[in-house]
Specification:
This protein is an alpha+beta fold and 144 residues long. The protein has a single domain (17-140), classed as Roll (Thiol Ester Dehydrase, Chain A). It is built from two helices and six strands.
Length: 144
């Protein structure tokens, strides 16, 4: 955990254990703060996730958005099912140069085969950095 003030994650709000973050999520420092099928909250540091000008990389915002949206989708899908992102779009409103960004994914559609989440990413001063939408296909988990 960092010394940066702000929301602190529960021990494991996803219920997925160490696999909740995946290799990319771990490398980017993503932390889940809250997780349910309806709403997932996660954050990541700006430091280490910047482009050459020292600004938060737009791709990093997309990784945070897809990570938290996909987590909501798999929680919606339920046991024995998986979620696979099939479409993401993002609008980058302003830059971030330090601290953390926090994403809130809110389910807008939850069916048997598709789930869609609206994601708002803000900085430590609650200014909107990015707005994204993610749609995931829901499938039965592969056997084995």
């Amino acid at each position: 955990m960092t010394d940066t003030p702000g929301p602190q994650p529960a021990a494991d709000p996803t219920g997925f254990g160490p696999d909740a973050y995946g290799d990319l999520g771990k490398a980017m420092g993503i932390e889940f703060l809250e997780a349910s099928p309806e709403r997932v909250v996660g954050r990541m540091p700006v430091k280490g996730n910047t482009q050459p000008y020292g600004l938060l990389h737009g791709g990093a915002s997309c990784v945070l958005a897809e990570s938290i949206g996909s987590t909501g989708a798999v929680l919606h899908a339920g046991p024995g099912r998986i979620a696979v992102g099939i479409e993401i779009n993002a609008t980058h409103h302003r830059s971030a140069t330090g601290g953390h960004v926090t994403g809130v994914a809110t389910r807008t559609h939850g069916g048997r085969t598709l789930a869609t989440y609206d994601i708002v990413i803000t900085d430590d001063e609650d200014r909107r950095i990015c707005t994204a939408r993610l749609t995931c296909m829901l499938r039965d988990a592969p056997e084995g």
